[in-house]
Specification:
- By secondary structure, the protein is mostly beta strands.
- It has a domain of 76 residues.
- The chain has 1 helix and 7 strands, in the order ββαβββββ.
- A 5-stranded mixed beta sheet has the order 2-1-7-4-3.
- A hairpin with a 7-residue loop joins β5 and β6.
- It is globular and about 55 Å long.
- The N and C termini lie far apart (40 Å).
Length: 127
């Protein structure tokens, strides 16, 4: 099983950070939903609180907050060509549910509470 990736958004400085998530930590997150707050210990960030905002599967299907399931589902979406347009089209699209499972390859998170250590990785200064 390959490692998953966590993309952590920092609203203070507008940057995002990429962290590897081990399969053991991903298994402990199984069953959580989009919108839940998780502890930063799962991502080697003690003291941080993170909110799950989305993600995608190994196959590339995005997670959808409205689907309260753990698997994939095909939905008929309606796309319009304007605010009051009567023209448009409908398309069947595959989404993954909002509940985290073992097939999640990427998790999108947002920092809610900051911890004592900075998010930015230490960069070695060459002199």
């Amino acid at each position: 099983m390959a490692n998953s990736v966590a993309i952590i958004a920092d609203s203070k400085n507008g940057k995002t950070y990429k962290k590897e998530v081990s399969p053991e930590n991903l298994n402990s997150l199984t069953g959580r939903k989009i919108g839940d707050e998780v502890d930063g210990v799962f991502f080697e960030l003690p003291g941080y609180k993170l909110k799950i905002t989305g993600g995608s599967t190994n196959d590339g299907f995005p997670m959808k907050q409205d689907l309260q399931i753990s698997g994939k589902k095909r939905i008929l979406r309606t796309y319009s060509l304007g605010k009051r347009s009567k023209i448009g089209y409908r398309k069947r699209v595959t989404y993954r549910g909002a509940i985290i499972g073992p097939d999640v390859a990427q998790l999108n998170l947002k920092v809610v509470q900051y911890g004592p250590n900075p998010l930015e990785p230490e960069t070695e200064k060459k002199e």
